[in-house]
Amino acid sequence: MTTPASSASPASAITPQSATAATPSPSGGLGGPGRFGSLGPVGLVLAGGVSVQFGGALAVTLMPRAGALGVVALRLLVAAVVLLLVCRPRLRGHSRTDWGTVVVFGITMAAMNGLFYQAVARIPLGPAVTLEVLGPLALSVLASRRAINFVWAGLALAGVFLLGGGGFSGLDPAGAAFALGAGAMWAAYIVFSARTGRRFPQADGLALAMAVGAVLFLPLGIAEAGTKLLDPVTLGLGAAVALLSSVLPYTLELLALRRLPASTFAILMSLEPAIAATAGFLILDQALSAMEAAAIALVVAASMGAVRTQVGRGRRGREKTAALESTGLEG
Predict the structure, then answer these.
(1) Could you say which DSSP state residue 192 is in?
(2) What's the pTM?
(3) Which partner for 70 in 66, 261, 306, 331 could form a disulfide, CB atoms 3.0-4.6 Å apart?
(4) H or E segment at 161?
(5) pLDDT tens-digit series, residues 111-159
(6) Which residues contact residue 14 at a Cβ distance below 8 angstroms, ignoring those fewer than 6 apart?
(7) Residue 69 and residue 76: Cα distance in Å, rounded?
Protein backbone atom coordinates (compact mmCIF):
# COMPACT_ATOMS: atom_id res chain seq x y z
CA MET A 1 0.00 0.00 0.00
CA THR A 2 1.06 3.56 -0.63
CA THR A 3 0.15 6.52 1.47
CA PRO A 4 2.52 9.38 1.01
CA ALA A 5 1.46 12.70 -0.44
CA SER A 6 -0.49 12.62 -3.62
CA SER A 7 -0.80 14.23 -6.98
CA ALA A 8 -4.20 15.32 -8.08
CA SER A 9 -3.41 15.92 -11.69
CA PRO A 10 -5.26 13.47 -13.90
CA ALA A 11 -2.00 12.38 -15.50
CA SER A 12 -0.82 10.97 -12.25
CA ALA A 13 -4.11 10.19 -10.57
CA ILE A 14 -3.20 6.57 -10.02
CA THR A 15 -0.45 7.56 -7.62
CA PRO A 16 -1.04 8.86 -4.12
CA GLN A 17 2.35 10.39 -3.69
CA SER A 18 3.20 13.69 -5.24
CA ALA A 19 1.35 16.82 -4.26
CA THR A 20 1.33 17.45 -0.55
CA ALA A 21 5.03 18.18 -0.49
CA ALA A 22 5.46 19.42 -3.99
CA THR A 23 8.12 21.89 -2.89
CA PRO A 24 10.47 19.96 -0.61
CA SER A 25 13.25 21.80 1.10
CA PRO A 26 16.60 21.63 -0.73
CA SER A 27 18.31 20.97 2.56
CA GLY A 28 16.79 19.55 5.69
CA GLY A 29 13.20 18.54 6.22
CA LEU A 30 11.93 15.54 4.37
CA GLY A 31 14.09 16.36 1.40
CA GLY A 32 17.31 16.42 3.36
CA PRO A 33 19.03 13.02 3.28
CA GLY A 34 21.43 13.62 0.41
CA ARG A 35 22.97 10.18 0.73
CA PHE A 36 19.90 8.70 -0.98
CA GLY A 37 20.40 10.83 -4.07
CA SER A 38 23.04 8.49 -5.50
CA LEU A 39 20.27 5.97 -6.26
CA GLY A 40 18.91 8.14 -9.05
CA PRO A 41 15.27 9.27 -9.21
CA VAL A 42 13.93 6.00 -10.64
CA GLY A 43 15.85 4.03 -8.04
CA LEU A 44 14.43 6.26 -5.30
CA VAL A 45 10.85 5.64 -6.42
CA LEU A 46 11.38 1.89 -6.70
CA ALA A 47 13.09 1.82 -3.31
CA GLY A 48 10.13 3.70 -1.84
CA GLY A 49 7.71 1.21 -3.38
CA VAL A 50 9.67 -1.74 -2.03
CA SER A 51 9.78 -0.10 1.40
CA VAL A 52 6.00 0.47 1.43
CA GLN A 53 5.07 -3.05 0.38
CA PHE A 54 7.57 -4.82 2.63
CA GLY A 55 6.34 -2.58 5.43
CA GLY A 56 2.85 -3.83 4.63
CA ALA A 57 4.07 -7.42 4.79
CA LEU A 58 5.67 -6.72 8.18
CA ALA A 59 2.37 -5.24 9.35
CA VAL A 60 0.60 -8.50 8.51
CA THR A 61 3.03 -10.39 10.76
CA LEU A 62 2.28 -7.90 13.56
CA MET A 63 -1.50 -8.33 13.38
CA PRO A 64 -1.63 -11.45 15.60
CA ARG A 65 -0.06 -9.32 18.34
CA ALA A 66 -2.05 -6.10 18.00
CA GLY A 67 -4.88 -6.69 15.51
CA ALA A 68 -5.43 -4.75 12.31
CA LEU A 69 -6.74 -1.65 14.08
CA GLY A 70 -3.89 -1.71 16.58
CA VAL A 71 -1.32 -1.88 13.78
CA VAL A 72 -2.92 1.07 11.99
CA ALA A 73 -2.95 3.09 15.22
CA LEU A 74 0.74 2.39 15.82
CA ARG A 75 1.68 3.19 12.24
CA LEU A 76 -0.19 6.50 12.16
CA LEU A 77 0.99 7.52 15.64
CA VAL A 78 4.69 6.87 15.06
CA ALA A 79 4.61 8.41 11.57
CA ALA A 80 2.81 11.48 12.93
CA VAL A 81 5.36 11.98 15.70
CA VAL A 82 8.29 11.67 13.29
CA LEU A 83 6.76 13.98 10.68
CA LEU A 84 5.78 16.59 13.25
CA LEU A 85 9.30 16.61 14.67
CA VAL A 86 10.92 16.82 11.25
CA CYS A 87 8.52 19.28 9.58
CA ARG A 88 7.62 21.41 12.62
CA PRO A 89 4.52 22.77 10.88
CA ARG A 90 3.31 26.26 11.72
CA LEU A 91 -0.04 26.16 13.53
CA ARG A 92 -0.96 29.83 13.27
CA GLY A 93 -1.98 31.85 10.27
CA HIS A 94 -4.25 29.25 8.66
CA SER A 95 -7.88 29.87 7.75
CA ARG A 96 -10.84 27.77 8.81
CA THR A 97 -10.95 26.36 5.28
CA ASP A 98 -7.29 25.37 5.55
CA TRP A 99 -7.93 23.45 8.75
CA GLY A 100 -11.09 21.90 7.36
CA THR A 101 -9.14 20.62 4.37
CA VAL A 102 -6.37 19.11 6.47
CA VAL A 103 -8.88 17.47 8.84
CA VAL A 104 -10.74 15.84 5.94
CA PHE A 105 -7.38 14.76 4.52
CA GLY A 106 -6.49 13.16 7.86
CA ILE A 107 -9.86 11.39 8.07
CA THR A 108 -9.41 10.06 4.54
CA MET A 109 -5.90 8.86 5.35
CA ALA A 110 -7.08 7.06 8.48
CA ALA A 111 -9.98 5.43 6.63
CA MET A 112 -7.72 4.32 3.78
CA ASN A 113 -5.24 2.71 6.14
CA GLY A 114 -7.90 1.12 8.31
CA LEU A 115 -9.76 -0.44 5.39
CA PHE A 116 -6.57 -1.68 3.74
CA TYR A 117 -5.25 -3.35 6.87
CA GLN A 118 -8.62 -5.00 7.39
CA ALA A 119 -8.24 -6.31 3.82
CA VAL A 120 -4.73 -7.75 4.24
CA ALA A 121 -5.87 -9.44 7.45
CA ARG A 122 -8.19 -11.50 5.23
CA ILE A 123 -6.67 -11.78 1.73
CA PRO A 124 -3.09 -11.93 0.38
CA LEU A 125 -1.12 -8.70 0.04
CA GLY A 126 -0.76 -8.79 -3.77
CA PRO A 127 -4.49 -9.15 -4.56
CA ALA A 128 -5.33 -6.57 -1.87
CA VAL A 129 -3.11 -3.91 -3.46
CA THR A 130 -4.39 -4.88 -6.92
CA LEU A 131 -8.00 -4.26 -5.84
CA GLU A 132 -7.01 -1.10 -3.98
CA VAL A 133 -5.32 0.46 -7.02
CA LEU A 134 -8.66 0.32 -8.88
CA GLY A 135 -9.74 3.45 -6.95
CA PRO A 136 -7.03 5.74 -8.32
CA LEU A 137 -7.35 4.07 -11.73
CA ALA A 138 -11.08 4.84 -11.81
CA LEU A 139 -10.32 8.45 -10.84
CA SER A 140 -7.85 8.69 -13.72
CA VAL A 141 -10.37 7.28 -16.23
CA LEU A 142 -13.19 9.56 -15.05
CA ALA A 143 -10.94 12.62 -15.06
CA SER A 144 -9.79 11.89 -18.60
CA ARG A 145 -13.17 11.27 -20.30
CA ARG A 146 -11.32 9.77 -23.29
CA ALA A 147 -12.59 6.66 -25.03
CA ILE A 148 -9.20 4.94 -24.89
CA ASN A 149 -9.25 5.06 -21.11
CA PHE A 150 -12.37 2.92 -21.07
CA VAL A 151 -10.24 0.30 -22.80
CA TRP A 152 -7.83 0.49 -19.88
CA ALA A 153 -10.76 0.27 -17.49
CA GLY A 154 -11.99 -2.85 -19.29
CA LEU A 155 -8.52 -4.36 -19.05
CA ALA A 156 -8.46 -3.67 -15.32
CA LEU A 157 -11.90 -5.22 -14.88
CA ALA A 158 -10.72 -8.31 -16.75
CA GLY A 159 -7.86 -8.52 -14.28
CA VAL A 160 -10.26 -8.20 -11.36
CA PHE A 161 -12.43 -10.95 -12.87
CA LEU A 162 -9.42 -13.26 -13.10
CA LEU A 163 -8.30 -12.29 -9.60
CA GLY A 164 -11.66 -13.32 -8.23
CA GLY A 165 -11.59 -16.62 -10.10
CA GLY A 166 -14.65 -15.58 -12.09
CA GLY A 167 -16.70 -14.66 -9.03
CA PHE A 168 -14.39 -13.97 -6.10
CA SER A 169 -14.88 -17.50 -4.85
CA GLY A 170 -11.14 -17.68 -4.27
CA LEU A 171 -10.97 -14.52 -2.14
CA ASP A 172 -12.64 -13.73 1.14
CA PRO A 173 -15.58 -11.45 0.15
CA ALA A 174 -15.13 -9.20 3.17
CA GLY A 175 -11.41 -8.84 2.45
CA ALA A 176 -12.11 -7.94 -1.19
CA ALA A 177 -14.75 -5.42 -0.09
CA PHE A 178 -12.34 -3.80 2.38
CA ALA A 179 -9.67 -3.55 -0.37
CA LEU A 180 -12.14 -1.90 -2.77
CA GLY A 181 -13.19 0.48 0.01
CA ALA A 182 -9.53 1.33 0.59
CA GLY A 183 -9.26 2.06 -3.13
CA ALA A 184 -12.19 4.48 -2.94
CA MET A 185 -10.49 6.22 -0.02
CA TRP A 186 -7.23 6.28 -1.99
CA ALA A 187 -9.01 8.20 -4.78
CA ALA A 188 -10.40 10.64 -2.19
CA TYR A 189 -6.94 10.84 -0.62
CA ILE A 190 -5.52 11.99 -3.97
CA VAL A 191 -8.03 14.83 -4.20
CA PHE A 192 -7.61 16.08 -0.63
CA SER A 193 -3.86 15.62 -0.63
CA ALA A 194 -3.59 18.01 -3.56
CA ARG A 195 -5.91 20.52 -1.88
CA THR A 196 -3.84 20.31 1.30
CA GLY A 197 -0.63 20.74 -0.69
CA ARG A 198 -1.95 23.99 -2.17
CA ARG A 199 -2.79 25.39 1.27
CA PHE A 200 0.25 24.30 3.32
CA PRO A 201 3.96 24.66 2.47
CA GLN A 202 6.24 21.66 1.90
CA ALA A 203 5.07 18.65 3.92
CA ASP A 204 3.38 20.64 6.71
CA GLY A 205 -0.11 19.62 5.65
CA LEU A 206 0.89 15.97 5.45
CA ALA A 207 2.32 16.06 8.98
CA LEU A 208 -0.80 17.73 10.39
CA ALA A 209 -3.11 15.33 8.55
CA MET A 210 -1.14 12.37 9.83
CA ALA A 211 -1.59 13.72 13.35
CA VAL A 212 -5.34 14.05 12.79
CA GLY A 213 -5.50 10.46 11.54
CA ALA A 214 -3.49 9.21 14.50
CA VAL A 215 -5.74 10.99 17.02
CA LEU A 216 -8.86 9.59 15.36
CA PHE A 217 -7.56 6.03 15.11
CA LEU A 218 -5.83 5.68 18.47
CA PRO A 219 -9.09 4.98 20.40
CA LEU A 220 -9.95 2.22 17.89
CA GLY A 221 -6.51 0.67 18.28
CA ILE A 222 -6.74 0.80 22.07
CA ALA A 223 -10.22 -0.73 21.98
CA GLU A 224 -8.97 -3.68 19.92
CA ALA A 225 -5.48 -4.24 21.33
CA GLY A 226 -5.60 -2.59 24.77
CA THR A 227 -2.37 -2.90 26.73
CA LYS A 228 -0.84 -5.07 23.99
CA LEU A 229 0.10 -1.81 22.30
CA LEU A 230 2.51 -1.10 25.18
CA ASP A 231 4.43 -4.35 24.69
CA PRO A 232 8.04 -3.39 23.74
CA VAL A 233 8.18 -5.89 20.86
CA THR A 234 4.83 -4.68 19.51
CA LEU A 235 5.93 -1.06 19.81
CA GLY A 236 9.21 -1.80 18.06
CA LEU A 237 7.55 -3.63 15.19
CA GLY A 238 4.91 -0.92 14.92
CA ALA A 239 7.64 1.71 14.69
CA ALA A 240 9.34 -0.34 11.97
CA VAL A 241 6.06 -0.52 10.01
CA ALA A 242 5.64 3.26 10.31
CA LEU A 243 9.18 3.92 9.13
CA LEU A 244 8.99 1.45 6.24
CA SER A 245 5.45 2.30 5.13
CA SER A 246 5.36 6.05 5.74
CA VAL A 247 8.47 7.99 6.73
CA LEU A 248 11.10 6.38 4.48
CA PRO A 249 8.91 6.28 1.34
CA TYR A 250 7.92 9.95 1.81
CA THR A 251 11.58 10.93 1.99
CA LEU A 252 12.64 8.86 -1.01
CA GLU A 253 9.72 9.94 -3.17
CA LEU A 254 10.06 13.63 -2.35
CA LEU A 255 13.72 13.42 -3.36
CA ALA A 256 12.76 11.64 -6.58
CA LEU A 257 10.06 14.18 -7.48
CA ARG A 258 12.67 16.94 -7.50
CA ARG A 259 14.26 15.30 -10.57
CA LEU A 260 11.55 13.08 -12.05
CA PRO A 261 8.48 14.08 -14.13
CA ALA A 262 5.21 13.32 -12.37
CA SER A 263 4.13 11.21 -15.36
CA THR A 264 7.15 8.92 -15.05
CA PHE A 265 6.58 8.74 -11.31
CA ALA A 266 2.96 7.67 -11.85
CA ILE A 267 3.98 4.92 -14.28
CA LEU A 268 6.50 3.58 -11.77
CA MET A 269 3.84 3.62 -9.06
CA SER A 270 1.69 1.40 -11.29
CA LEU A 271 4.07 -1.41 -10.35
CA GLU A 272 2.83 -1.40 -6.74
CA PRO A 273 0.62 -4.52 -7.08
CA ALA A 274 3.52 -6.51 -8.51
CA ILE A 275 5.85 -5.32 -5.74
CA ALA A 276 3.20 -6.19 -3.15
CA ALA A 277 2.83 -9.69 -4.58
CA THR A 278 6.60 -10.16 -4.37
CA ALA A 279 6.68 -8.95 -0.76
CA GLY A 280 3.79 -11.26 0.12
CA PHE A 281 5.63 -14.21 -1.39
CA LEU A 282 9.00 -13.48 0.24
CA ILE A 283 7.81 -12.41 3.69
CA LEU A 284 4.45 -14.12 4.12
CA ASP A 285 4.85 -17.16 1.85
CA GLN A 286 1.79 -16.03 -0.14
CA ALA A 287 2.31 -17.77 -3.47
CA LEU A 288 0.20 -16.68 -6.45
CA SER A 289 -1.52 -18.96 -8.90
CA ALA A 290 -0.93 -18.42 -12.63
CA MET A 291 -4.39 -16.83 -12.89
CA GLU A 292 -3.72 -14.42 -10.02
CA ALA A 293 -0.36 -13.44 -11.53
CA ALA A 294 -2.05 -12.78 -14.88
CA ALA A 295 -4.73 -10.71 -13.14
CA ILE A 296 -2.14 -8.53 -11.41
CA ALA A 297 -0.29 -8.09 -14.72
CA LEU A 298 -3.50 -6.91 -16.41
CA VAL A 299 -4.20 -4.32 -13.71
CA VAL A 300 -0.59 -3.08 -13.82
CA ALA A 301 -0.81 -2.77 -17.62
CA ALA A 302 -4.13 -0.92 -17.37
CA SER A 303 -2.67 1.52 -14.83
CA MET A 304 0.37 2.22 -17.00
CA GLY A 305 -1.81 2.64 -20.08
CA ALA A 306 -4.10 5.12 -18.35
CA VAL A 307 -1.14 7.20 -17.18
CA ARG A 308 0.54 7.20 -20.60
CA THR A 309 -2.73 8.25 -22.27
CA GLN A 310 -3.09 11.16 -19.88
CA VAL A 311 0.54 12.18 -20.34
CA GLY A 312 0.16 12.18 -24.11
CA ARG A 313 -3.01 14.25 -23.90
CA GLY A 314 -1.35 16.79 -21.61
CA ARG A 315 1.68 17.07 -23.88
CA ARG A 316 -0.47 17.59 -26.98
CA GLY A 317 -2.48 20.23 -25.15
CA ARG A 318 0.66 22.16 -24.22
CA GLU A 319 2.00 21.92 -27.78
CA LYS A 320 -1.31 23.20 -29.20
CA THR A 321 -1.33 26.13 -26.79
CA ALA A 322 2.26 27.01 -27.67
CA ALA A 323 1.44 26.90 -31.39
CA LEU A 324 -1.57 29.17 -30.92
CA GLU A 325 0.47 31.59 -28.87
CA SER A 326 3.21 31.70 -31.51
CA THR A 327 0.66 32.64 -34.20
CA GLY A 328 -1.13 35.17 -32.04
CA LEU A 329 -4.36 33.16 -31.93
CA GLU A 330 -4.36 32.52 -28.20
CA GLY A 331 -5.79 34.97 -25.70
Answers:
(1) H
(2) 0.74
(3) 66
(4) helix 147-163
(5) 999 999 999 999 988 888 888 888 877 777 776 667 777 777 777 777 7
(6) 133, 136, 137, 139, 140, 266, 269, 270, 303, 306, 307
(7) 11
